[in-house]
């Protein structure tokens, strides 16, 4: 048995290869572990877990030999560091969780492992998922496998997941998306990433950033893989009160590529001042491709869009300021060294000052401010009202017969690491401008690679679907993927 | 049900140097929900377990953990609300109250600020002498308790026990309707009584499962009435909150000293600062803990991990239809059905176990007279238990059926009251069926008039001088009765003896 070129494998083709006994899960795992080991320059993997991977692969082979194994049986995956994995460091890329190894397994990873998936390692990310460039990680930034003369960001916060999938270090990876953290890095690295409807995937065991916005999702090489992996991640969980008790469809079976008669909306408010021409052109190209595939494309209005980003940057930090209060050095993680006679307040202040990076501290402070007495109504409550209006915008459009909405995923291609170092933080927040609306409204959104910019860097288009209609959304994305025919891969330099 | 009509009691008046002052008191009572599991984690609530043994990952605030509401705790809170004649809110929601403390692992307490589960209700607080205060309940919300910090085990370290973290509490907030320290104590005891009837709170104040924050202010006579009429709090004085009290005795003492402290300041021309105070029972004073300026900003906001709590009216109706009889109703019924006095009915219904015991005493057999039974429970049984190391009624060696048997023997005239006391002692110490003991030990009362007449004749014959005296002074007949009872070993029916003695003496 010989392994095929791993960089051309997908979950779907590996699944067939395993069933045809072209290779074993153990061979596949060894191949990917070797690739991962050789990819240190990308800084995508922060804790390799070869022993777990080998044990899981061995078990997967036994299951495959018995026949009737689940789709993901023997498929090597990477896991974002935000997911708690039993006995394995799970630090949310933060110094404050130094040494933390949970005694429990997140629902998502439990489900993936129950299906026979193989964990190769934990993947880099922005600290506590706060960032759009992976530069806030305590492990240092991920380097995008797409490199044009200099190191580029892989996006954030799921930058490690995006880079690992794009570089072929694993067949798929888990991501999480609070304001675009799956979709923007997917766009920056030429892969597919879907954030399902809020409540589709259990949040239990995922380190919380902003609870009402956080949602996990798969990051894969193509739409079919996203459909396969999403199915394994979804499902009602009695341990998460916000998870929906709905049946999980066979998303892969829904991929027909036939979108004739579907109505695609193009929201005029997403055309922003100063938007790069290339993004504009890609968006127009996407419109044309969907039209050619038989969809009816119409211009629509989502009038409250311009308030989305400010509302998001009130709600998300507010929830984060509370969610991150538990990192106090008392029970787990890192505690600052204290001087003689220093009290509990000193312990909190030093622990949190040393343990949290600048961006996390900024958001905790913003969140604390907007929730404080006298400001609550002006900020937090106002932002909640805006959120309701944004949700209504989408409901109206869907009620008018639109099946999906097409937008760019991000306002630019991957930018250089360090480019934003001296910029106003708001410049970085603008990366989320097309994606946060989806989180605020709780809708499913997917980024599909659709072209390259002048420098040859990948660009993604985002499709936004109706709540709980991931199957239909994936099908539309599948059609777009086929029309775009994006096959470019980064040249291996690492 | 009897119409329990009471007069409102007069408010407590404290005479100051510049005139009279009245007290205005409102309470926030934290009642631990009787539940085997915590409110959001499912961990055990067992009291007295090894430190940190009843702690789940959720209780410890571990990363990625999520709360899930315990439906049983919601039902208990609804039950309590219904017991306090309160409105049940079918839509409520949980909020986070944010503050840092090591015994608050998540850095926030899950509570209900904006939309509590239970709305307005009321409690009738009896105060004796036909007076009672109607205390309005503003709201009851469901929240989680914090853990326990222990600072006195080590000079350089503090310890934290999270067993209590996440245990369900009901916070019962009253309106400022309480007007004296005695009323405050009686109000808490009434809440405790109702919740114990409902089975929603064990009410063990020593173990901290009933605690209160007490808000105290003072005003001039007439001001409270203005407030009551208008709802305008500006007619009332500035209040101070005395935190975390778990003894009705200390609560009364704290209210008294706090009111006097405030009056002294006001009469000195000063102003009351709204603040949180603590009561020091050793020094008999309240001390400032933190003022309004340095109060925590709790940054309440809706907990995004929990969906709003939606309950259905039908579910509430089911709970309502299964509610047990509550103290007021039970007391009224006991008074009506058994002709008990207000006092006796009050004593018997004070604790749910007492009432249950009494009702079992009178429920079986025949001729179990309610008044007699009440008398026996309150005087004989309670007295005996008290002498026996202050035993609880649930530990009584005499079962309700046994006591019922004794009451029945009295009712049938089989034994006299005096014999009954001996019988009770036998049953208490040795056990056994009272009727059988009476038979076996020949304790049956003599009602055979022939035998009694013989005994009377013998006493009369042996005491001619006394007979003469008795004829002058009929009150001395009692002496003959006593002699006859003595002669018959107490077994003669006293009524029959009385009658025969009088007849034979020609009185």
Automatic annotation (TrEMBL), chain A:
<protein>
    <recommendedName>
        <fullName>Glutamyl-tRNA(Gln) amidotransferase subunit A</fullName>
        <ecNumber>6.3.5.7</ecNumber>
    </recommendedName>
</protein>
<dbReference type="GO" id="GO:0006412">
    <property type="term" value="P:translation"/>
</dbReference>
<dbReference type="InterPro" id="IPR036928">
    <property type="entry name" value="AS_sf"/>
</dbReference>
<feature type="active site" description="Charge relay system">
    <location>
        <position position="157"/>
    </location>
</feature>
<feature type="active site" description="Charge relay system">
    <location>
        <position position="80"/>
    </location>
</feature>
<dbReference type="GO" id="GO:0050567">
    <property type="term" value="F:glutaminyl-tRNA synthase (glutamine-hydrolyzing) activity"/>
</dbReference>
<dbReference type="InterPro" id="IPR020556">
    <property type="entry name" value="Amidase_CS"/>
</dbReference>
<keyword id="KW-0547">Nucleotide-binding</keyword>
<dbReference type="InterPro" id="IPR023631">
    <property type="entry name" value="Amidase_dom"/>
</dbReference>
<keyword id="KW-0436">Ligase</keyword>
<dbReference type="InterPro" id="IPR000120">
    <property type="entry name" value="Amidase"/>
</dbReference>
<comment type="subunit">
    <text>Heterotrimer of A, B and C subunits.</text>
</comment>
<dbReference type="Pfam" id="PF01425">
    <property type="entry name" value="Amidase"/>
</dbReference>
<feature type="active site" description="Acyl-ester intermediate">
    <location>
        <position position="181"/>
    </location>
</feature>
<dbReference type="GO" id="GO:0005524">
    <property type="term" value="F:ATP binding"/>
</dbReference>
<dbReference type="GO" id="GO:0030956">
    <property type="term" value="C:glutamyl-tRNA(Gln) amidotransferase complex"/>
</dbReference>
<keyword id="KW-0648">Protein biosynthesis</keyword>
<keyword id="KW-0808">Transferase</keyword>
<dbReference type="GO" id="GO:0016740">
    <property type="term" value="F:transferase activity"/>
</dbReference>
<comment type="similarity">
    <text>Belongs to the amidase family. GatA subfamily.</text>
</comment>
<dbReference type="InterPro" id="IPR004412">
    <property type="entry name" value="GatA"/>
</dbReference>
<keyword id="KW-0067">ATP-binding</keyword>
From TrEMBL, chain B:
<keyword id="KW-0547">Nucleotide-binding</keyword>
<dbReference type="InterPro" id="IPR023168">
    <property type="entry name" value="GatB_Yqey_C_2"/>
</dbReference>
<dbReference type="GO" id="GO:0016740">
    <property type="term" value="F:transferase activity"/>
</dbReference>
<dbReference type="InterPro" id="IPR017958">
    <property type="entry name" value="Gln-tRNA_amidoTrfase_suB_CS"/>
</dbReference>
<feature type="region of interest" description="Disordered">
    <location>
        <begin position="274"/>
        <end position="295"/>
    </location>
</feature>
<dbReference type="InterPro" id="IPR014746">
    <property type="entry name" value="Gln_synth/guanido_kin_cat_dom"/>
</dbReference>
<keyword id="KW-0436">Ligase</keyword>
<comment type="function">
    <text>Allows the formation of correctly charged Asn-tRNA(Asn) or Gln-tRNA(Gln) through the transamidation of misacylated Asp-tRNA(Asn) or Glu-tRNA(Gln) in organisms which lack either or both of asparaginyl-tRNA or glutaminyl-tRNA synthetases. The reaction takes place in the presence of glutamine and ATP through an activated phospho-Asp-tRNA(Asn) or phospho-Glu-tRNA(Gln).</text>
</comment>
<dbReference type="GO" id="GO:0050567">
    <property type="term" value="F:glutaminyl-tRNA synthase (glutamine-hydrolyzing) activity"/>
</dbReference>
<dbReference type="Pfam" id="PF02637">
    <property type="entry name" value="GatB_Yqey"/>
</dbReference>
<dbReference type="GO" id="GO:0005524">
    <property type="term" value="F:ATP binding"/>
</dbReference>
<dbReference type="InterPro" id="IPR017959">
    <property type="entry name" value="Asn/Gln-tRNA_amidoTrfase_suB/E"/>
</dbReference>
<keyword id="KW-0648">Protein biosynthesis</keyword>
<dbReference type="GO" id="GO:0050566">
    <property type="term" value="F:asparaginyl-tRNA synthase (glutamine-hydrolyzing) activity"/>
</dbReference>
<dbReference type="InterPro" id="IPR006075">
    <property type="entry name" value="Asn/Gln-tRNA_Trfase_suB/E_cat"/>
</dbReference>
<dbReference type="GO" id="GO:0006412">
    <property type="term" value="P:translation"/>
</dbReference>
<keyword id="KW-0808">Transferase</keyword>
<protein>
    <recommendedName>
        <fullName>Aspartyl/glutamyl-tRNA(Asn/Gln) amidotransferase subunit B</fullName>
        <ecNumber>6.3.5.-</ecNumber>
    </recommendedName>
</protein>
<dbReference type="InterPro" id="IPR042114">
    <property type="entry name" value="GatB_C_1"/>
</dbReference>
<dbReference type="InterPro" id="IPR018027">
    <property type="entry name" value="Asn/Gln_amidotransferase"/>
</dbReference>
<comment type="similarity">
    <text>Belongs to the GatB/GatE family. GatB subfamily.</text>
</comment>
<dbReference type="InterPro" id="IPR004413">
    <property type="entry name" value="GatB"/>
</dbReference>
């Amino acid at each position: 048995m010989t392994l095929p070129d791993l960089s051309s494998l997908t979950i779907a083709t590996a699944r067939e290869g395993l069933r045809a006994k072209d290779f074993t899960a153990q061979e596949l795992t060894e191949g990917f572990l070797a690739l991962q080991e050789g990819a240190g320059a990308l800084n995508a993997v922060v804790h390799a877990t070869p022993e777990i991977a080998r044990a899981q692969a061995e078990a997967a082979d036994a299951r495959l030999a018995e026949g009737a194994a689940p789709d993901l049986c023997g498929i090597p995956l990477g896991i974002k560091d935000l997911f708690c994995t039993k006995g394995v460091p799970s630090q949310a890329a933060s110094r404050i969780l130094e040494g933390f190894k949970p005694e429990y397994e997140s629902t998502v990873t439990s489900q993936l492992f129950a299906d026979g998936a193989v964990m190769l390692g934990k993947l880099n990310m922005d600290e506590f998922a706060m960032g759009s460039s992976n530069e806030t990680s305590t492990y240092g930034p991920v380097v995008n496998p797409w490199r044009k003369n200099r190191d580029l960001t892989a996006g954030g916060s799921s930058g490690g997941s995006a880079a690992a999938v794009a570089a072929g270090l694993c067949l798929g990876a888990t991501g999480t998306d609070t304001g675009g953290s799956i979709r923007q890095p997917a766009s920056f690295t030429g892969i597919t990433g879907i954030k399902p409807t809020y409540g589709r995937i259990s949040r239990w065991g995922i380190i919380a950033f902003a609870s009402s916005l956080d949602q996990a999702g798969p990051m894969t090489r193509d739409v079919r893989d996203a459909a396969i992996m999403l199915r394994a991640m979804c499902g009602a969980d009695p341990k998460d009160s916000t998870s929906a008790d709905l049946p999980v469809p066979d998303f892969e079976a829904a991929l027909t590529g036939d979108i004739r008669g579907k109505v695609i909306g193009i929201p005029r408010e997403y055309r922003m001042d100063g938007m790069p021409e290339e993004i504009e052109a890609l968006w127009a190209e996407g419109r044309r491709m969907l039209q050619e595939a038989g969809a009816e494309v119409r211009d629509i209005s989502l009038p409250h869009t311009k308030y989305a980003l400010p509302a998001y940057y009130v709600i998300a930090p507010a929830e984060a300021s509370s969610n991150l209060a538990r990192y106090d050095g008392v029970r787990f993680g890192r505690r600052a060294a204290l001087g003689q006679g220093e009290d509990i307040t000193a312990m909190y202040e030093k622990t949190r000052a040393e343990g949290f990076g600048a961006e996390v501290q900024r958001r905790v402070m913003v969140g604390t401010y907007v929730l404080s007495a006298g400001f609550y109504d002006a900020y937090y409550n106002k932002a909640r009202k805006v959120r309701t209006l944004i949700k209504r915008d989408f409901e109206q459009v869907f009620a008018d017969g639109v099946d999906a909405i097409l937008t760019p995923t991000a306002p630019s291609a991957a930018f250089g690491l360090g480019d934003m170092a001296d910029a106003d933080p708001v410049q970085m927040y603008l990366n989320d401008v097309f994606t946060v609306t989806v989180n605020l409204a709780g809708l499913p959104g997917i980024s599909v690679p659709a072209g390259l910019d002048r420098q040859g860097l990948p660009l993604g288009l985002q499709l936004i679907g109706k709540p709980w209609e991931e199957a239909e959304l994936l099908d539309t994305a599948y059609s777009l993927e086929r029309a775009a025919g994006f096959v470019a891969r980064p040249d291996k330099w690492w | 049900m009897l119409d329990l009509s009471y007069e409102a009691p007069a408010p407590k008046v404290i005479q100051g140097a510049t005139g009279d002052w009245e007290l205005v008191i409102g309470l926030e009572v934290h009642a631990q929900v009787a539940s085997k599991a915590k409110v959001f984690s499912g961990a055990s609530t067992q009291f007295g377990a090894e430190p940190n043994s009843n702690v789940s990952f959720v209780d410890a605030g571990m990363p990625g953990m999520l709360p899930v509401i315990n439906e049983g705790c919601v039902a208990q809170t609804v039950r309590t609300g219904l017991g306090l004649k309160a409105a049940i809110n079918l839509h409520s929601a949980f909020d986070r109250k944010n503050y840092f403390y090591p015994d608050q692992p998540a850095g926030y307490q899950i509570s209900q600020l904006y939309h509590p589960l239970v709305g307005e209700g009321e409690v009738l607080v009896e105060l004796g002498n036909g007076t009672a205060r109607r205390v309005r309940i503003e709201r009851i919300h469901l929240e989680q308790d914090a853990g326990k910090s222990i600072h006195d085990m080590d000079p350089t370290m503090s310890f934290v026990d999270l067993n209590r973290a996440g245990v369900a509490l009901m916070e019962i907030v009253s309106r400022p309707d309480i007007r004296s320290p005695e009323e405050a104590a009686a109000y808490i005891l009434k809440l405790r009584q109702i919740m114990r009837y409902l089975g929603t709170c064990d009410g063990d104040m020593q173990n901290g499962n009933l605690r209160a924050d007490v808000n105290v202010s003072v005003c001039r006579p007439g001001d409270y009435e203005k407030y009551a009429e208008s709802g305008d709090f500006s007619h009332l004085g500035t209040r101070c909150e005395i935190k975390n009290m778990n003894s009705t005795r200390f609560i009364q003492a704290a209210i008294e000293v706090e009111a006097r402290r405030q009056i002294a300041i006001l009469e000195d021309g000063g102003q009351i600062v709204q603040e949180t105070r603590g009561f020091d029972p050793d020094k008999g004073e309240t001390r400032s803990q933190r003022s309004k300026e340095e109060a925590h900003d709790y940054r309440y906001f809706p907990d995004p991990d929990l969906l709003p709590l939606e309950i259905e009216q039908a579910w509430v109706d089911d709970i309502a239809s299964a509610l047990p009889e509550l103290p007021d109703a039970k007391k009224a019924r006991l008074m009506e059905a058994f002709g008990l006095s207000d006092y006796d009915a009050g004593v018997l219904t004070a604790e749910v176990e007492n009432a249950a015991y009494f009702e079992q005493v009178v429920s079986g057999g025949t001729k179990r007279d309610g008044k007699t039974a009440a008398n026996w429970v309150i005087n004989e049984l309670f007295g005996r238990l008290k002498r026996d190391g202050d035993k609880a009624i649930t530990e009584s060696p005499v079962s309700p059926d046994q006591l019922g048997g004794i009451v029945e023997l009295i009712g049938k005239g089989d034994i006299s009251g005096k014999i009954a006391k001996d019988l009770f002692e036998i049953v208490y110490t040795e056990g056994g069926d009272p009727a059988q003991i009476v038979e076996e030990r020949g304790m049956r009362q003599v009602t055979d008039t022939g035998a009694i007449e013989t005994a009377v004749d013998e006493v009369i014959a042996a005491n001619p001088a006394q007979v003469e005296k008795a004829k002058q002074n009929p009150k001395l007949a009692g002496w003959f009765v006593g002699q006859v009872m003595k002669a018959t070993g107490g077994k003669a029916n006293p009524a029959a003896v009385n009658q025969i003695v009088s007849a034979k003496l020609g009185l």
